[in-house]
Amino acid sequence: MMNTKGIRRKKSSLSEVKVAVVGAPGVGKSALTVRFLTKRYIGEYDHQTETKYKHEVLVDGDPILFEIFDTCPKNENDLPSHDTVSWADGLLLVYSIIDRQSFAFVKKIVSSLANCDMPLYLVANKCDMVHLRQVSCEEGAILARDYDCGFSEVAAAEQVAAVATVFQELCRSVLVSRRKSKQSLLERMLGTKTNTMRLYVRGKSDSALPKD
Ligand SMILES: Nc1nc2c(ncn2[C@@H]2O[C@H](COP(=O)(O)OP(=O)(O)OP(=O)(O)O)[C@@H](O)[C@H]2O)c(=O)[nH]1
């Protein structure tokens, strides 16, 4: 699905960000994904198929081509596959505030990532159903602090902007992490730290600096 309204730059200048939407069955992964893509809420989806979408939007004024993988676990033990995790630049971890098991499922997913240091964003969906709440907002916030990632409670059923913000925040984390790994690759290739390099360049070009 493509939304190219308002975006005039060449495709080649786009940053691509791959997001896998993961979480227990029925937490609202498709509802959140479709809300972001179309701004609409559709109550029931095909639960049998995993779907990949493409969606172009501006994030902080820059065009971003999102690739979104709406995963579809068969049961509470069906964790995201190695292929899914290695495909993704970032994971949107979704649980439902009215389903404590789905909160535990998110923890299982993150444990299964082992040392894989990828950008994450924790989303607590169905916050329109507070009367049935099983997971407090504080628990979500604490878990996100543990994972060093962003966190929001949202309702795909009712909100448009809050859902978009979740995808945009994850996108920002992906871009930051990409910049950091490019920088550390450069440092490794040069066999030096960037700040040492900066000193060297300055020393060569700045005649006002002392010679040693
Ligand atoms: N009240 C409420 N219901 C929601 C919300 N989001 C999704 N639902 C409902 O929750 C059910 C499951 O939503 P889906 O989007 O299909 O969930 P899913 O995580 O994609 O499910 P699987 O594909 O089976 O893994 C549907 O009946 C949705 O209408 C929400 O924010 N509030």
Measure the end-to-end span.
59 Å
Question: Radius of gyration, rounded?
Answer: 20 Å
- CATH names the topology as Rossmann fold
Spatial order of strands in the largest sheet: 2-3-1-4-5-6
Total of domains: 1
Roughly what percent helix? 25-40%
Please write the string of helix (H) and strand (E) elements.
Answer: EHEEHEHEHEHH
Q: Could you describe the largest sheet, including whether it forms a barrel?
A: 6 strands, mixed
What's the CATH architecture name?
A: 3-Layer(aba) Sandwich
CATH homologous superfamily caption = P-loop containing nucleotide triphosphate hydrolases
Mean pLDDT score, rounded? 86
Low-confidence stretches: 1-13, 196-212
The total strand number stands at 6
Which outline best applies? globular
CATH class type? Alpha Beta
Instruction: Assess the beta-strand content as a share of residues.
Output: 15-25%
Count up the helices.
Answer: 6
**Which class best fits the helix and strand makeup?**
alpha/beta
| Small-molecule binders | guanosine-5'-triphosphate
GO molecular function: G protein activity; GTP binding
EC number: 3.6.5.2
Catalytic activity: GTP + H2O = GDP + phosphate + H(+)
Pfam families: Ras
